[in-house]
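FAQ: What does the model actually see?

It sees only this:
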Amino acid sequence: MNISLHHVAVWTNNLENLKKYYTHYFNASSNSLYYNEKTNFKSYFLTFKGGALLEIMQKPDIPLNANDTIIKQHTGIIHLAFGVDVPDEVDKLAEQLQNDGFAILRGPRITGDGFYEFETADPDNNRIEVTCKLKTNK
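And it is asked to produce this:
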């Protein structure tokens, strides 16, 4: 049996704003809006380079997350990680996001396991990591 992760989904209260963020900063492409009039459910599937999918969804009766702060860690899915090819792209995206008013939570920095990365948050305070595997001379 060949099993692969198909997509990750997140609820939002501002579907169009979240779609704009991921298509602008992370070059996602979007399908057409899906809307179920009976349940008032709306969603987009965003596709990233390499084929990863993120479903962003909106429905009026979804409660806010009790863990709505981006500072505290908690169990469960904690971040979405986006890979870039070279460290300069990490720096460039961190600078662009910061210049556009998004907080850089940590980094850019070299991690103990050989990555160069920074952390930020999307407009809904979902934690985002942008990372690049550093080349080793081994």
